[in-house]
Specification:
heterotrimer; A alpha+beta (about 775); B alpha+beta (about 280); C alpha+beta (about 170); A: about 775 residues; alpha+beta; five-stranded mixed β-sheet; 20 helices; 26 strands; B: about 280 residues; Uridine Diphospho-n-acetylenolpyruvylglucosamine Reductase, domain 3; Enolase-like, domain 1; 2 domains; five-stranded antiparallel β-sheet; four-stranded antiparallel β-sheet; 12 helices; about 25% strand
């Protein structure tokens, strides 16, 4: 028998495109999204929203709404505010808001779509019927429709508490010797780079079911939040409940891309109403509300001066960034620090000056959207192409000339501080030139132009701190994780991540299974329940390194614990034991192997184990990111512009990326492609448009245009997977990169296509109309 | 209301008047209701009226029941054979699942100037057949049917029952050309064109433009300019220039009047070129 | 009959006869999700653009947000819950899993139903035909390539490999 027992083979899961654990439920319609939650006695909330951008509420009449069939309650702003804990501070993006505001508008409205009143009824149809009957009179206060208007001190302050419409006064920092860099320049290239307002648009809108139990005084919140723990903190504070009385549970989440990090005013209102009424209340945002008021991103202007030599050396930048943060507090005012820190990217500069300011306007709040600091990459990479065009040089050569060299033993640092150790921008750029035959393209481009067809090639290079090397202030904090080995041999992984499409149930299980030594199927990842998982959130491309690393190290610690306890059972040294394919055994003695469930039962059934033996088989750990490392890469696009209609077709899109060791290539590629698709949308299709009076113009999917299968080409992806800085964890974040780098890649390609027209493109959004304007084809 | 006969439907309309809306495929009306932009008190649903569906040969052309689904028209061999211009437009209407429900009569009655079928009706010189309890049946030439944004000459108590589309003369080529932000979106500008060439000269041209006015419009001056012209690039370019000068489009979120005029010119030129090429069986 | 009036509806959903009384204005989507508990059908826009609510009605793909439940009287409806056979995922579902077709899963029901209807009509579509047909369904996560690959895999066509690790 001994002779036939085979040596169990250690199973490898990391690096495999393991099929997703999420899919059996998602592909059969068995997912559980927040709108799928139906509770007995559940009521439905619907908000009455402002049609005005900036106005005083002079009167509000809810009497007709109250008389509607099925209506249980109607609240105006002042009435609802009485339900808020008086001690509560208005919530901002991670922490308190910089100024005070109310859950519903109490005295004035501050954007189209602002919350004026809320109806609770026994069905959503009836709640909507009643909400439409609430009559509100307004006195127009004059919209503040742009950052320029906000900086003009004659406008009415949107928030009295702030005193003006300037959220952040211009604040300047400088690095290196800026004056020397500009003094040494042959010329200064200037540009006004603009990103336009666009937005996350997950396919699932926001929503919540708040279920307050008057008997126990407990609030159960079924949410759709990237950080259930963050939502819990907000609910605890706003409702004035003890933390142990609030539980937030999130099931499947239909996308977010940064939007659902925050807890919205609507969610707070819904919870307040549930507590007040003692019944479950559901609010599900509709698409019109979502597009209008869930939050927008990216409306930024960066005035750039680049000091360059005639040979193409970039000596320094002076940048002035202004953000239009919209009305209620979001992320916009906090962007300056990270945009400044990342602006130099992989390039070596001699001087850098950065000024940041932020304005409050009567538009939707600035929310986090996939790579929120992307203004640095967009501005830098578009400016590099403008420099090349002005100097008559090849943009590829300008990049080659300026990207810092990274000798392994002596890595350079960004002028703003962080080490560029592990940065492979140069390698990705060089690899791109091997993948794409650029000279052949140039020949094809010339031939096409002779036929009146306009092809263009653009590329751009970026790095992303996901997490970046250890130190330098850009880290992602710690990531907690709990793991437990169940009696039946299941490895339970309690993650602080809140998956919403990123496949964490699969990837974290791959890491845990491989490190611990169990089959993939024996791992169960638990997420999204503040009673069961550690505090945390998904965002900032943190999952791969932080949660992947936490999974590896927690599994390692738990395995050690199991081996130490097993040593007593096997009467062997723990160092001689192993866990392979779910079996514990003595290394090299296959016959000794016993299933984990049996080992757990036997150890727990053994009397007289030494006191130091821990049979809980549970470990809680926190991982600090280890040595970390940069993510990044180079993207390249080939486009064709129809100069008669302004339509742009993306003919080819190539990615060379480096996110270290791939946990699951199919998941990584899904993240890359999804990000690139959003970048294509941003440049060609998507705009959260307002008119000059801050009236919102893009409230349906016929106005806000998302890319479809006809707009996104196949995307070729090449992985570099460079040498790690960390001995164990070389998984790096990849969620945001595609969306960060696709816009400048495409803009550079379009600018290249239109170069015969002498066009200079300094903006991100290039719909057909704009293309024809740029080339002067319209009268 | 779910009438099972046309008479029943017409009675309901006569009874409820302006409170009532006719529901055909619902692919335009229901979104408006969902957004609370339309709030009819009564819907008269024609989906139970099987007699209003179907495409049949009619003279050398076709007669299409108003409740014929876009999808059925898209698949119709008789339509493809006899009215290729309309057949070419079918797959451009919305998306597959919209065409499953959307109807020919619904599209025409909705009279969206950005839609394809109203322009096709103009270019093919179709005749619309409507009924009311009060006035019985009347026939309306497509050129007189469309009044303005989402309005037609149909009375409140009238239902569009069918559309008769004549076949074009022999030696006619057709083309639908449109520019949309995305495939399946309403066109920013579009053209439906038919060009007849006899003995080396253009003898007839029909050019109907999509989304350049508050209703679909024919470019009659451009059509006239083409008659007698040699079918070559200069003629198409000249007609395109004339067409763009005889329209007065408005602007919206996606396009300005100048954009529409410029792109109308491009579309007319491209549509005429292609239509002429197809006269001889080209692609 | 007004739009708020209750009416009887009887239809066949995923092979079972279902009967209910609903408001005349209730959409088919809300009826499926709330009255029948078939929450696999999702609502992404409620104005007919995103395609997430697509179901198959009498063999044709339709937007269930653009129909009233009462209009589905006596119809045969298939939703995403009706694809798996006795708890076993069908060929298309398996192919999508193999291809990592979807991420967050919210658009998934609409895609699967639209693809199912497409393949019934045209069992061997080209990639261009697949893109055209699926252009009425919006996915915000994937960039569509994995979904196209899933369809190609389901019909046994070659799936272009497009990634490579650099040694």
């Amino acid at each position: 028998m001994e002779a036939t027992a085979s040596q169990p083979i250690a199973q490898r899961f990391i690096g495999e495109s393991v099929k997703r654990s999420e899919d059996p439920r998602i592909l059969t319609g068995a997912g559980n999204y927040v709108d799928d939650v139906q509770l007995p006695g559940m009521l439905h909330a619907c908000f009455t929203r402002s049609p005005m951008a900036h106005a005083r509420i002079t009167s509000i009449d809810i009497s007709a709404a109250l008389e509607q069939p099925g209506v249980v309650a109607v609240f105006t702003g002042p009435q609802l505010q009485e339900l808020v804990d008086p001690e509560a501070v208005s919530p901002g993006f991670f922490g308190p808001a910089p100024f005070k505001y109310t859950v519903l508008a109490t005295d004035k409205v501050r954007l189209v779509g602002d919350l004026v009143a809320v109806v609770v009824a026994d069905s959503r149809y009836r709640a909507e019927d009643a909400a439409a009957l609430i009559e509100v009179d307004y006195e127009d206060l004059g919209p503040i429709a742009s950052a320029e208007a906000a900086f003009d001190s004659s406008g009415t302050p949107i928030f009295e508490d702030l005193g003006s419409n300037v959220l952040t006064q211009p604040t300047k920092s400088s690095f290196g010797d800026v004056e020397a860099a500009f003094a040494a320049a042959d010329r200064v290239v200037t540009a006004r780079i603009r990103q336009h307002r666009h937005q996350n648009v997950p396919m699932e809108c926001r929503g919540v079911v708040a279920d307050f139990d008057p008997g126990t005084g407990e609030l159960m919140v079924h949410g759709s939040n990237q950080g259930p723990g963050l939502a819990k903190m907000v609910m605890v504070a706003q409702l004035g409940l003890e933390p142990d009385k609030v539980r937030v549970v999130c099931g499947d989440i239909g996308g977010s891309f940064g939007l659902k990090i925050g807890t919205s005013r609507e969610e707070i209102a819904t919870a307040l109403l549930s507590k007040h009424l003692g019944r479950p209340v559901k609010w599900i945002e509709d698409r019109n509300e979502h597009l209008m008021a869930s939050g927008h991103a990216r409306e930024e202007t960066l005035d750039v001066e680049a000091a360059v030599t005639d040979q193409g050396d970039i000596l320094g930048f002076k940048v002035k960034m202004v953000v239009d943060t919209g009305a209620y507090p979001g992320m916009g005012g906090m962007l300056g620090g990270i945009v400044q820190a990342m602006f130099p990217g992989p390039y070596s500069l001699k001087g850098f000056e950065f000024e940041f300011s932020a304005a409050v306007t009567n538009k939707a709040s600035y929310v986090a959207y996939r790579g929120p600091w992307a203004a640095e990459t967009f501005t830098r990479e578009v400016t590099v192409d403008l420099i090349a065009a002005e100097l008559g040089l090849d943009p590829l050569e300008v990049r080659r000339r300026n990207i810092a060299f990274q000798p392994a033993d002596n890595p350079a640092s960004m002028l703003t501080g962080r080490s560029l150790a592990s940065c492979t921008a140069r390698e990705s750029l060089e690899h791109m030139t091997k993948v794409v035959d650029i000279p052949a393209f140039r020949a094809r481009q010339a031939a096409a132009r002779a036929e009146g067809r306009y092809l263009g090639l653009g590329l751009a290079t970026y790095i992303e701190a996901a997490p970046g090397p250890r130190g330098g202030g850009g880290g992602l904090g710690n990531e907690a994780m709990r793991m437990a080995l169940d009696e039946d041999g299941t490895l339970l992984v309690f993650t602080a991540q809140m998956p919403h499409g990123q496949s964490h149930e699969t990837t974290l299980a791959q890491v845990a299974a491989e490190e611990f030594g169990v089959p993939f199927e024996s791992v169960r990842v638990v997420a999204g329940d503040t009673d069961r998982v550690p505090f945390g959130f998904t965002g900032g491309s943190r999952s791969a390194t932080m949660a992947g690393g936490a999974s590896l190290h927690t599994a390692r610690a738990l395995r050690q614990k199991v081996l130490e306890a097993s040593a007593h059972l096997f009467e062997a040294d723990p160092a001689d034991l192993e866990i392979v394919a779910g079996q514990v055994g003595v290394r090299g003695v296959p016959v000794s192997a016993r299933p984990l469930a049996q080992v757990v039962a036997e150890i727990r059934g053994t009397d007289g184990l030494p006191e130091e033996v821990d049979t809980s088989f549970e470990v809680t750990n926190a991982y600090d990111g280890g040595e970390g490392g940069w993510s990044g890469g180079t993207h390249l696009a080939i486009v064709e512009v129809d100069v008669e209609t302004g339509l742009v077709e993306v003919e080819r899109y190539v990615v060379v990326e480096d996110c270290g060791k791939l946990i699951n290539p199919a998941v990584v590629e899904g993240q890359v492609r999804g990000g690139v698709a959003q970048g294509i949308g941003a440049v060609l299709l998507e705009r959260s448009a307002y008119d000059e009076n801050a009236q919102f113009l893009a409230g349906t999917f016929m106005d806000y245009l998302l890319p479809t299968a006809m707009n996104v080409p196949r995307i070729e992806i090449h992985h570099l997977e460079t040498v790690p800085l960390d001995p164990d964890v070389n998984f790096r974040g990849v969620g945001e990169g595609g969306m960060i780098i696709a816009p400048p890649t495409l803009v550079n390609a379009i600018a290249d296509a239109l170069s015969p027209f002498g066009v200079r493109i300094e903006e991100q959004h290039l719909p057909p109309l704009r293309i024809l304007e740029l080339i002067g084809a319209l009268d | 209301m779910l009438p099972t006969s046309l008479e029943e439907a017409l009675s309901a309309l006569a009874e409820y008047g302006s409170e009532a809306k006719v529901l055909a495929g619902g692919q335009s009306l229901i979104p408006l209701m969902s957004l609370r932009l339309a709030q009819p008190g009564v819907l008269v649903d024609l989906n139970g009226l099987g007699a209003l569906s179907g495409i049949e040969a009619n003279g050398s052309g076709v007669r299409i029941g108003a409740m014929t689904r876009h999808r059925a028209a898209e698949r119709s061999e008789v339509l493809a054979e006899r009215v290729p211009l309309m057949a070419e437009a079918m797959p451009l209407i919305g998306h597959a699942a919209i065409r499953s429900r959307g109807t020919i009569g619904g599209s025409l009655s909705h009279a969206d100037p950005a839609a394809e079928l109203p322009a096709v009706a103009l270019a093919t010189e179709a005749t619309l057949i409507a009924r009311s309890l009060r006035g019985g049946e009347r026939t309306i030439p497509a050129s007189e049917f469309f009044e303005g944004y989402f309005t037609t000459v149909l009375a409140e108590d009238e239902i569009l029952c069918a559309v008769e589309v004549p076949a074009a003369p022999p030696s006619t080529g057709f083309c639908v050309t449109e520019v949309a932000r995305r495939h399946g979106d309403f066109a920013l500008v579009g053209v439906t064109a038919a060009v007849t060439i006899d003995q080396g000269l253009v003898t007839r041209a029909r050019i109907a433009l999509i989304n350049v006015a508050e209703r679909p419009v024919r470019a009659e001056q451009a059509e006239a300019a083409l008659v007698g012209a040699k079918p070559e690039a200069a003629a198409w370019a000249e007609a395109a220039a004339v067409a763009s000068s005889e329209i007065d489009p408005s602007g919206d979120l996606h396009a300005t009047p100048a954009y529409r005029r410029k792109v109308a010119r491009v579309c007319v030129k491209r549509a005429l070129e292609t239509a002429a090429r197809r006269v001889g069986g080209g692609r | 009959m007004t739009l708020g009036e209750a009416v009887d509806v009887a239809l066949t959903v995923n092979g079972s006869r279902r009967e209910a009384q609903v408001e005349a204005r209730r959409t088919l989507a809300d009826f499926l999700r709330e009255d029948l508990g078939l929450t696999g059908t999702h609502l992404g826009c409620e104005h007919g653009v995103c395609g997430a609510c697509t179901v198959i009605l009498d063999g044709e793909p339709v937007r269930s947000c653009l129909m009233f439940a009462v209009q589905a009287r006596d119809a045969t409806v298939t939703t995403i819950e009706g694809l798996a056979v006795e708890g076993v995922m069908n060929n298309l579902q398996e192919a999508m899993r193999e291809s990592h077709g979807f991420q967050c899963g919210f658009c998934t029901p609409g895609f699967l139903m639209q693809i199912t209807a497409m393949l019934a009509d045209n069992p061997n579509p080209t990639e261009a035909e697949i893109r055209d047909t699926l252009s009425g369904n919006i996915c915000r996560c994937t960039g569509y390539e994995s979904i196209l690959n899933g369809v190609l895999r389901a019909i046994g066509a070659d799936v272009p490999g497009s990634h490579q690790s650099v040694p």
